Amino acid sequence: MEMRVALLYLSILIYSTLSAAASADPIHGCGGFVEASSSLVKSRKATDAKLDYSNIRVELQTLDGLVKDRTQCAPNGYYFIPVYDKGSFVISISGPEGWSWDPEKVPIVVDDSGCNHNEDINFQFTGFTLSGRVVGAVGGESCSDKNGGPSNVNVELLSHTGDVISSVATSPLGIYLFKNVIPGQYKLRASHPDLEVEARGSTEVKLGFENGVVDDIFFVPGYELRGFVVAQV
Q1: CA distance linking residue 85 with residue 89, whole number of Å
Q2: For residues 109 and 111, what is the distance between their CA atoms, to the nearest angstrom?
Q3: NOMO second beta-sandwich domain: which residues (predicted)?
Q4: Cys staple from 32: which of 10, 46, 119, 121, with CB 3.0 to 4.6 Å?
Q5: Among candidates 51, 53, 43, which has minimal Cα distance to 94?
Q6: In this predicted model, what pLDDT tens digit does every residue of 176-216 receive, in sequence order?
């Protein structure tokens, strides 16, 4: 009799365990690939280092930007993030400083059909940064920043045929930065409505398969000083 009761309890326990496992929600996951854009692939030379995507991070975030999980890409660009909850989320990508992405974020929905219906969520690496500085004439004890530069100088990135590709304004330190630039040959041009900007050296630049920094080729030799003369009565 005791043996039958024990077997009955054991059968109930096994049935309950199997039922719970069968009714539990399956674990879904979001995955895909990171790859270079076709323009980047065409610009890459045989002597350039092979792209390694293992230093690229992909994150699963809430709609408010809270990170729920993250993973590193495999060297070939593949990634996979398990998702334990259903709902709406965001997949975002980040990598080496200066690299540009398309897209940077992808909204997703996790439900019974999986993560975005189990479709791959892919990202493209599209370009590098090209940066430099416009140097301003400084001097005197009253000048607190000896390494500063003029702000709001318009710097243009031109193709080898002279077409404007992009334009940016310099920061308060005279820094300019172009994003999402494809490796190749370019020209630079700088101007300001109230300042004389001199080019000392060649304005032609070459961006390799990496972020580029331009030598100090633009200079502002001086500034205008304006004021009023008033009569005291």
Answers
A1: 10
A2: 6
A3: 125-218
A4: 121
A5: 53
A6: 999 999 999 999 999 999 889 999 989 999 999 999 999 99
Which residue is associated with the tokens 């940077």?
Answer: 104
Q: What domains sit in the chain, N to C, each tagged with a CATH number?
A: 26-121 (2.60.40.10), 127-139+147-220 (2.60.40.10)
String of DSSP letters for 11-25:
HHHHHHHHHHHHHSP
Quick one: CA dihedral 167, 189, 37, 76, positive or negative?
negative
CB 56 within 8 A of CB 33: no
Could you tell me the pTM of the whole model?
0.78
* Amino acid (1-letter code) at residue 2: E
Question: Is the predicted pLDDT of residue 225 greater than 90, yes or no?
Answer: no
Q: Any long-range contacts for 54-59 (C-beta under 8 Å, 24+ apart)?
A: 55/95, 55/96, 56/93, 56/94, 56/95, 56/96, 57/93, 57/94, 57/95, 58/34, 58/91, 58/92, 58/93, 58/123, 59/91, 59/92, 59/93, 59/94
